[in-house]
C-alpha cells in the first residue's frame, strides 16, 4: 500500500493556511502522480454512487408501463436513494472528520453494493424501494468524504482544478446510467437493470478499500484526547454565507437540467431526438465548464471572486433564456441552453473547494456534508416550484424570475475573511 506520509494536508483555516502545508508542490509547480491517482479513485467512487442513486430514474417507463405503478408511485421509488443521501451526508462527513476518508468511502460503497444486491433479489417493490433508500444512504459517503480526499491531497494552487474534475462525477454517473440502464431494463427487466449499479458499486468499494490512502494530517490538526475542534460555524459567518449562495444558485442549475428538454420541445418546436441531443451536449459542456472555472480560481488565487462572476453570469443567461422564449428565437435556443448549462453548474466546484478550505481538516467532512444536504433540499424544491410557475405564467416569466436569485447571491459571496484579512 502507498506510503501515508507523502500527502499534503488539508489545512485548518482557509486557503492561506492550507496552502502553507504543501510548500514543495506549490513552490516547484510539480505534483507527483499519487494525488492524481487519489483523485481518480475518488472520482470513480462518486461516479459509482451517482449511478446507484440515478438508476431508478431510468426505470420509470418499466415501473409505470410493465409493473403498473402510477407516475406518483414510480416517483417515490425514484426519490428513495436521494432521500437516503440527504439523511446521511452530514453523518458520513462527521465520520470522515474523525477516522479519515479511506474507510468511510469503502464502507459506504459496500453498503450501497449490498443494498443494490438486495434490491436486485427483492420480490416486491416496497422492499426494493427500501433497499434503494439504504443504497442512497451508503452512496452519500463518497460525496461527503470525496471532497476531503481531494483537498487533502492537493496543494491550494491545484485544488480548484482537482475539485472541478471531481465535480464531473455527477454528470458522468448520470450519463452512464442513462446509456446502460434503459436498454437493459427494456431487454431483460428490472433485475438486469439493477445488476449494473451493483457491479459498479462493488468494484468501487473494493478499489476504494484497496487503494485509497488518507492524506497526512498536520500535527496541529490532531487534537489531544477529549479536546474538541473549534466549530467554524460559530467562529464566523463564512460557511453559512457560502451555503446560502449555493442554495440560491442551485435553482437556475436545476431549472435548466429539469425543464430545458420540455421547453425545447413544447415551446420552441424542436423534435424530441434533437432536443435530447442538445441537452446531452449541454451536460457535457457543463462538466468541462467546472474544470475551466476551477483552473481559473487556481490562477487568480481566489474561489470567491470567480464565484461572484458565475453568479452574475447565471442571472444574465436566465434573462437571455427568458427573452429567447418571449421573442420565439428558436434558432438560437440550443446555443442558449448549452451556454446556460455551462454557467449554472460552474459554481459547484468553487463552493465545495472554498467550504473545505475554510472549514479545515477537522470540520471539512461535516461542512461538505452540510453543503451537499442544502443543495439536495433546494434541488428537490426546484421542480415543483418552477413547474407551478411555468404552468401559471409560462417559461419566459419563470426564467426571468429565476434570474433574480443569482443577483441576490452576489452580495452574499464573501471576498475577505475578516478574521485574518485573507482574500477568499
In short:
With 424 residues, the protein is mainly alpha-helical. It has helices spanning 15-19, 23-28, 33-54, 60-65, 71-99, 101-121, 125-153, 156-166, 169-188, 190-211, 232-235, 238-266, 272-300, 304-327, 333-344, 347-359, 364-393, 395-402, 404-409, and strands spanning 416-417, 422-423.
Characterization of this structure:
Strand 1 and strand 2 (422-423) form a beta hairpin. The protein has 424 residues and is mainly alpha-helical. It has two domains: 15-23 and 31-221, MFS general substrate transporter like domains (Growth Hormone, Chain: A, Up-down Bundle); 232-423, MFS general substrate transporter like domains (Growth Hormone, Chain: A). Residues 1-28 have low confidence and may be disordered. The protein has helices spanning 15-19, 23-28, 33-54, 60-65, 71-99, 101-121, 125-153, 156-166, 169-188, 190-211, 232-235, 238-266, 272-300, 304-327, 333-344, 347-359, 364-393, 395-402, 404-409, and strands spanning 416-417, 422-423. It has a two-stranded antiparallel ribbon with strand order 1-2. It contains 19 helices and two strands. The longest helix is centred in the last third of the chain and has 30 residues, at 364-393. The protein is globular.
Structural class: mainly alpha
Low-confidence stretches: 1-28
Radius of gyration: 21 Å
* CATH class descriptor of the largest domain: Mainly Alpha
Please tell me the CATH architecture of the largest domain by its name.
Up-down Bundle
> What portion of residues is helical?
over 70%
Helix and strand element order: HHHHHHHHHHHHHHHHHHHEE
Q: What coarse outline follows from CA principal-axis ratios? A: globular
Which percent range describes the beta-strand content?
A: under 5%
Through-space gap between termini = 36 Å
Amino acid at each position: 500500500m502507498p506510503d501515508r506520509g507523502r500527502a499534503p494536508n488539508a489545512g485548518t483555516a482557509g486557503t492561506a493556511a492550507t496552502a502553507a502545508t504543501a510548500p514543495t508542490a506549490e513552490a516547484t509547480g510539480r505534483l507527483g502522480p499519487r494525488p492524481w491517482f487519489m483523485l481518480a479513485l475518488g472520482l470513480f467512487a462518486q461516479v459509482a454512487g451517482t449511478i446507484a442513486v440515478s438508476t431508478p430514474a431510468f426505470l420509470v417507463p418499466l415501473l409505470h408501463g410493465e409493473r403498473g405503478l402510477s407516475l406518483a408511485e414510480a416517483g417515490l421509488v425514484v426519490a428513495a436513494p436521494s432521500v437516503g443521501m440527504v439523511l446521511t451526508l452530514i453523518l458520513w462527513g462527521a465520520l470522515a472528520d474523525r477516522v479519515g476518508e479511506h474507510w468511510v468511502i469503502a464502507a459506504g460503497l459496500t453498503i450501497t453494493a449490498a443494498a443494490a444486491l438486495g434490491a436486485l433479489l427483492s420480490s416486491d417493490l416496497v422492499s426494493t424501494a427500501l433497499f434503494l433508500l439504504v443504497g442512497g444512504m451508503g452512496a452519500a459517503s463518497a460525496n461527503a468524504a470525496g471532497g476531503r480526499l481531494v483537498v487533502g491531497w492537493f496543494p491550494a494552487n491545484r485544488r480548484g482544478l482537482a475539485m472541478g474534475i471531481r465535480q464531473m462525477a455527477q454528470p458522468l454517473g448520470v450519463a452512464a446510467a442513462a446509456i446502460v440502464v434503459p436498454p437493459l431494463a427494456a431487454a431483460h427487466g428490472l433485475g438486469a437493470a439493477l445488476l449494473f449499479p451493483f457491479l459498479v458499486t462493488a468494484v468501487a468499494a473494493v478499489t476504494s478499500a484497496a487503494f485509497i490512502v488518507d492524506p497526512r494530517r498536520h500535527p496541529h490538526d490532531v487534537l489531544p484526547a477529549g479536546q474538541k475542534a473549534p466549530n467554524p460555524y460559530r467562529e464566523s459567518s463564512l460557511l453559512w454565507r457560502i451555503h446560502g449562495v449555493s442554495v440560491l444558485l442551485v435553482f437556475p442549475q436545476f431549472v435548466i437540467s429539469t425543464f430545458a428538454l420540455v421547453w425545447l420541445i413544447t415551446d420552441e418546436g424542436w423534435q424530441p431526438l434533437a432536443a435530447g441531443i442538445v441537452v446531452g451536449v449541454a451536460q457535457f459542456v457543463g462538466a468541462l465548464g467546472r474544470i475551466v472555472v476551477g483552473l481559473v480560481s487556481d490562477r487568480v488565487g481566489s474561489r470567491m471572486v470567480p464565484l461572484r462572476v458565475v453568479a452574475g453570469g447565471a442571472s444574465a443567461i436566465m434573462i437571455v433564456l427568458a427573452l429567447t422564449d418571449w421573442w420565439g428565437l428558436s434558432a438560437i435556443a440550443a446555443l442558449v441552453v448549452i451556454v446556460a448549462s455551462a454557467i449554472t453548474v460552474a459554481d459547484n466546484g468553487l463552493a465545495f473547494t472554498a467550504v473545505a478550505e475554510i472549514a479545515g481538516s477537522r470540520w471539512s467532512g461535516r461542512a461538505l456534508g452540510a453543503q451537499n444536504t442544502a443543495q439536495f433540499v433546494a434541488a428537490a424544491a426546484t421542480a415543483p416550484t418552477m413547474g407551478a410557475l411555468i404552468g401559471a405564467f409560462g417559461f419566459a416569466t419563470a426564467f426571468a424570475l429565476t434570474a433574480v436569485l443569482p443577483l441576490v447571491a452576489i452580495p452574499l459571496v464573501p471576498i475577505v475573511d475578516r478574521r485574518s484579512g485573507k482574500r477568499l
